[in-house]
Design a protein that fits this description.
The protein has 505 residues and is α+β, with helices and mostly antiparallel strands. The chain contains 15 helices and 20 strands. It folds into 2 domains: 140 residues, Beta Barrel (OB fold (Dihydrolipoamide Acetyltransferase, E2P)); 253 residues, Bira Bifunctional Protein, Domain 2 (BirA Bifunctional Protein, domain 2, 2-Layer Sandwich), CATH 3.30.930.10.
C-alpha cells in the first residue's frame, strides 16, 4: 500500500498493525464482545468494600483516550459511550504464562484511539479513583489515524478542538474528542420523543409522505431538481409535506403528523441548512386559535422534558416557554418597529416604504414578499420571548383561509423566539375555488421572476374539490427549537452532519 500521503504517525500505526498480524493477532476480530456494564454504572454504583463483590467480574469496552506507562504496568483511560473510567493493566495479569514478551509487543504498543475490551474487577486506587483492574484485555479495533490531542488535568480541558470546519466535517472525530457534544444530540432525541408523546397521547397519527415529488408544493422556496430516468420526467426534493398531509385530512384522517426531512436550494447561515427537519401536523375541525393554545402546551412540555424546566439559556438571555405566549398582529408589529402603518397600502405604497427604510427589494417581489422583507429586516429580531405574530396579509399566505372578521387578512401565525421564526401555522384554506385563484396569482409572480413562487398542484386542487373539513395546520422548525433548548449558536451544531463544501482529500 502506498504511504506517500500518510503522516509519520499514520505510517507508524500501520507498521504496528503489520506487527500484530505477524504475531497472529487479529486487530479487527469478530464484533461480539460480552459487555455487561458501562463506565457510568461503575462510577455511580461502586461503593468500595460495601459492594465490592458486585463488581468482581466486569466487562466493558471502549476507546483508549490516555495511557500512562510504568514499565511492567500502566494506567489508561477508557472511554465508552457513556463516559470515561480509569483502567489498570499489569503485565503479569494479562500475560500469565512464562512468556511476558507479548506485553511489550502488544499491550505496551497500543495507541490512543484504539478500541479495546477489558475484563476484570473494580477497585479504588490509593488516590481514591474508581478504576478497573484488568485481568484480560482484547484489541477490538486498531486506530490507524491519530486523534487530535486534547489535554485534561484535574477536570479541566486544555487545547480543546473548537475549529468548526474540523468539527462539522469530521463529526465522528468531534464526538470522540469532545464527548460533551453528544449531549446536544441526546437532547435532540428527547425533544423529538417528547413531541411524539404529546401528539400520540392526543390521538394524532404519524405518517410518511413522498420526498421525491413531481410538484414542489407547500411552501415558497427554491427546490432541488433531479430527474427520474424510468419515467423521463423532472422531479423535485420535497420543500414541504403540507399538501400531502392535507390530502390525508381529505381522506378521513382527523389528525396526522410527520417529522419531515425537507430540502431547499437556498443559502446557508447559522439558522439555515439546505437539508433540515420540520414537524408538520394537521387537525380537522380546528382553527389557528386552537393551534396557538396547542403550540404553547407542546413547547412547554418539550422544554420540561429536555431540560427539566420551562426556561432555557440562549445567548446570555433567559427564555421562558411557560404558557401563555404574547400575541401581536403583523401590521401592529410593523407599525411599532418602523413607525409606518401599511395596513391600507397597495404594492406601490409598500414599495415606497421599503425604499424609505433602506431595504433593497427586487421588481419581482409582490406585495406579500415586500411585507415579509419589512418584517424580517425591521421587526423579527425584537421578539426574544415566545411571541405569536398573527393575522397576516392575504398576499403572504397562498394556502391560508381568509380571516373570518378582518378583510384582506388571513388566519395565520408565526411563532418568534430569540428573533427567529420557529413555527408557522394557519387555519387552512379549504375552498378549492379560492385556492385555485391563489395558485394562479403565484404563477403570475413566477412569470415576474420570483423563483420561490408556488406551482399549481392540480391533484391537490382535485382533492380539495372532494371536500376538506375545516382544518388547522402547523410546521415547526425542529432544528431551531433544538438550538434554543441546547443553547447552540448555529444550526450546524444541532445537525450531526451539516452541509459542507466538498473536501479535497
Amino acid at each position: 500500500m502506498s504511504t506517500h500521503h500518510l503522516s509519520e504517525q499514520e505510517i507508524i500505526r500501520r507498521e504496528k498493525l503489520a506487527a500484530l498480524q505477524q504475531l497472529g493477532i487479529d486487530a479487527y476480530p469478530a464484533p461480539a464482545y460480552p459487555v455487561n456494564i458501562t463506565s457510568t454504572e461503575i462510577r455511580s454504583n461502586y461503593l468500595g468494600e460495601d459492594n465490592k463483590a458486585d463488581f468482581a467480574d466486569v466487562c466493558l469496552a471502549g476507546r483508549l483516550m490516555g495511557i500512562r506507562d510504568m514499565g511492567k504496568a500502566c494506567f489508561a483511560v477508557l472511554q465508552d459511550h457513556e463516559g470515561k473510567i480509569q483502567i489498570y493493566v499489569k503485565r503479569d495479569d494479562v500475560c500469565p504464562g512464562d512468556d511476558k514478551s507479548l506485553y511489550d509487543q502488544v499491550w505496551k504498543t497500543l495507541d490512543i484511539g484504539d478500541i479495546i475490551g477489558v475484563k476484570g474487577y473494580v477497585f479504588t486506587t490509593k488516590t481514591g479513583e474508581t478504576s478497573v483492574h484488568v485481568k484480560e484485555l482484547t484489541l477490538l479495533s486498531k486506530s490507524l489515524k491519530p486523534l487530535p490531542v486534547v489535554k485534561e488535568k484535574e477536570g479541566e480541558t486544555f487545547d480543546a478542538v473548537t475549529d468548526p470546519e474540523f468539527r462539522y466535517r469530521q463529526r465522528y472525530a468531534d464526538l470522540i474528542i469532545n464527548p460533551h457534544v453528544k449531549e446536544t444530540f441526546l437532547k435532540r432525541s428527547k425533544l423529538i420523543n417528547s413531541i411524539k408523546d404529546f401528539l400520540n397521547s392526543r390521538g394524532a397519527i404519524e405518517v410518511d409522505t413522498p420526498v421525491l415529488q413531481s410538484i414542489p408544493g407547500g411552501a415558497a422556496a427554491r427546490p432541488f431538481t433531479t430527474h427520474h430516468n424510468a419515467l423521463d420526467i423532472p422531479m423535485y426534493l420535497r420543500i414541504a409535506n403540507e399538501l400531502y398531509l392535507k390530502r390525508l385530512i381529505v381522506g378521513g384522517f382527523d389528525w396526522v403528523y410527520e417529522f419531515s426531512r425537507n430540502f431547499r436550494n437556498e443559502g446557508m447561515d447559522r439558522t439555515h441548512n439546505p437539508e433540515f427537519t420540520v414537524l408538520e401536523f394537521y387537525t380537522a375541525y380546528k382553527d389557528y386559535l386552537w393551534m396557538m393554545d396547542t403550540t404553547e402546551q407542546l413547547l412547554e412540555k418539550a422544554a420540561i422534558d429536555v431540560n427539566g424546566t420551562t426556561e432555557t439559556e440562549v445567548d446570555g438571555k433567559t427564555i421562558s416557554f411557560k404558557a401563555p405566549f404574547k400575541r401581536v398582529t403583523m401590521y401592529d408589529a410593523i407599525k411599532e418597529h418602523t413607525g409606518y402603518d401599511i395596513s391600507d397600502m397597495d404594492e406601490a405604497g409598500i414599495r415606497e416604504v421599503c425604499k424609505k427604510l433602506g431595504l433593497a427589494v427586487e421588481s419581482s417581489m409582490g406585495k406579500g414578499k415586500l411585507i415579509d422583507e419589512i418584517f424580517g429586516e425591521k421587526c423579527e429580531h425584537h421578539y426574544i420571548q415566545p411571541t405569536f405574530i398573527i393575522d397576516y396579509p392575504i398576499e403572504m399566505s397562498p394556502l391560508t383561509k381568509k380571516h373570518r372578521s378582518k378583510p384582506g387578512l388571513v388566519e395565520r401565525f408565526e411563532l418568534m423566539v430569540n428573533g427567529k421564526e420557529i413555527a408557522n401555522a394557519y387555519t387552512e384554506l379549504n375552498d378549492p375555488i379560492d385556492q385555485r385563484a391563489r395558485f394562479e396569482e403565484q404563477v403570475t409572480l413566477m412569470e415576474r421572476g420570483d423563483d420561490e413562487a408556488m406551482f399549481i398542484d392540480h391533484d391537490f386542487l382535485r382533492a380539495l374539490e372532494y371536500g376538506m373539513p375545516p382544518t388547522a395546520g402547523i410546521g415547526f422548525g425542529i432544528d431551531r427549537i433544538c438550538m434554543l433548548l441546547t443553547n447552540q449558536p448555529s444550526i450546524q451544531d444541532v445537525l450531526l452532519f451539516p452541509m459542507m463544501k466538498p473536501e479535497s482529500i
